[in-house]
Amino acid sequence: MTLTLFEDPVQRPLAELLRPKTLAEVVGQDHLLAPSSPLGRMIQRRHLQSFILWGPPGVGKTTIARLIASAAGYSFVQLSAVSTGVVDLRKTIAEADNLRQANGTTTAVFIDELHRFSRPVQDALLPAVEEGRIILIGATTENPSFSLVSALLSRCKVLTLRRLDGAALDLVIQRAEEHFGRALPLTPDARDAVIAMADGDARYLLGLCDELLSLPPDETIDAKQLADLLQQRAPLYDRGKEEHFNLLSCFHKSLRGSDPDAALYWAARMMAGGEDPAVIFRRLCCAASEDVGLADPQAMIQATTAWQAFERVGLPEGRLFLAQAIVYVATAPKSNACYMAFAKAQELARQTGSAAPPMHILNAPTKLMKELGYHAGYRYDHDFPDAYSGQTYFPDELGGADHPELYRPNERGFEREIKRRLDFWSKRRAQANGEG
Asked: Could you read off the pLDDT of 61-110 as tens digits, one per residue?
């Protein structure tokens, strides 16, 4: 069956036509709009405080800003950080001052993509917000902690919007169907696929509905035909922003938590978003050392070997090497003993950075150094049984043989064998030093 898209006579986007007219029509954000919520209390008092709406695209940030300002009786001005500079901002603030002096109306200034404002522009905005000359309503898809200056952030309440779930998106589809007076020409599986394609974004979903409802009404599309007809949306992922670090954290914690399925999933999510595979391999090597360590020394070998093979072969076959290494590291016995040992060593080094090394382990390449006692009493370990002399290597002020214990292997994996060796050497040291 050949599917043909007809021109829609309506010029305005469907997302704009179906934008909620009241807060009750907003879907998926009940936690922000309930009477007991921060926004709910502001509406009841008809007194707004500056706030920032943080959430993914297409979840209602602009709509909520408009409706909140209207419900509270504020004048509403919408700006975009992409096209607004300091001059435009000062003009808007001056107009807000004039309006307030004329009839007492306060202006709510909505700034979309607030994170795109440079620091100087944010600084220019700060006095008006601080003095209450305007109420700032910002919208951002990026973590405000990283994208906004601290002075502005401290004067605004940050409200997090949730990604729309399947039930909320289905309600959006129903509204589109009511608007057109007919159902989407989709099988149930295809309808579910459309919701999945939207990935929590109502605006994107309405764009799909607009396309589908312009098809001939007598044609019903199944999931396979839908995939041919509509372009799959690229996953929300920015390699330089917060989502990059969020997914890396999920990946690493899944490895640490011995969950190969979750680790594979997060790695696949990053790959689908266009992440550099080297970034994933680097984090995999970190986990192999930090969380597996010597409980399974092969984990690091598996990770680095898979990385080398990936670089030589490339995609698509290289994904198999990545998957194999991920599963190995995730299912390996875990130990952070080496990680903790070096952290203790670094702290000890900071506290005792000037402690003199013991003379017997210093080389004596000159006659003077020999006369001063360098290297005197050094015991060459290979001259002793089991190649172990039992001498001490720590500075005397750290206790010599009674030095702090830094590395404490556990009883998991290969570290069980390492612990056995350390216990053996501890006994031999005591014998060598006349303690046993």
From this structure: 999 999 999 999 999 999 998 888 888 889 999 999 999 999 989 999 99
pLDDT of 150: 87
Closest by CA to 380, choosing from 361, 365, 359, is 361
Instruction: Look at residue 272 in the predicted model and tell me its pLDDT.
Output: 85
Q: How far apart are CA 402 and CA 88, in angstroms?
A: 70
Question: For 283-325, what is each residue's pLDDT tens digit?
Answer: 999 999 999 999 999 999 999 999 999 999 988 889 999 999 9
Peptide bond into 316 cis (omega under 30): yes
Specify the residue for token string 């990026």.
Answer: 142
Q: Is 186 helix (H, G, I), strand (E, B) or coil?
A: strand
Residue with tokens 């999920």: 250
Report the alpha-carbon distance of residue 432 to residue 344 in Å, rounded. Answer: 27
> pTM value?
0.62
Q: How far is CA 401 from CA 30, 406, 432, 433, in A?
A: 64, 13, 11, 9
C-alpha 397: how far from chain center: 45
For the beta carbon of residue 46, count every other beta carbon within 10 angstroms: 10
Query: What own/partner pairs with CB < 8 Å and gap ≥ 24 does 305-312 have?
Result: 306/281, 307/278, 307/281, 310/277, 310/281
Q: Which residue has the tokens 């209390």?
A: 41
Whether residue 21 contacts residue 15, with contact meaning beta carbons closer than 8 Å, is answered with no
